[in-house]
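Our preliminary data section would be incomplete without showing what the modeling component actually yields. Below, a chain of 157 amino acids is followed by its predicted structure, encoded as tokens that our downstream tools consume directly.
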Amino acid sequence: MGKSGFIGILILLVILGLGFYIVTTYFSQIPSSETQQAASSIPRYPDSGSWKVNSQQKICLFDLGGCSNAPSFINFESNDAWPSIYAHYREKLLQDEWLTNSQIYTSVPTEIIFTKTLRQDTSCEAHLTKSPGRLFNKNKNPNLNTYTFTLKCLPKK
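Predicted structure:
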């Protein structure tokens, strides 16, 4: 490879690095303080093995699906089955003034959605779902399930 080929690759790498910097600096959103507050108010599941709150920046090139209001995520693992998780959070969050229309009719729903008015002008929504099982589960415990809360607070319209 000649000197011009090396310079061309170097210029390409500089342009890619600069592009990545611009995208992550100017087109990233962090969850609002209300969303982070709502995430911190979710009680930890008593039998959870891990509990990770993720309120990091989200790259948002196009405002598709309300991406300008980045969500916070809470991921946790438990050996408990979905019906136990569902019942626990339905009871606990209703006590904490969250609302839900979710009911058990013939089977436990696959997700539960909670809403809460934080202030007169801000409403929060929390979705709790069981994450799908991994094809190549590296975990030695096959009964360990992963659950995810997705929280987002938006101004009322």
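The mean pLDDT is 82. Residues 1-29 form one domain. Preliminary results of this kind motivate Aim 1 of the renewal.
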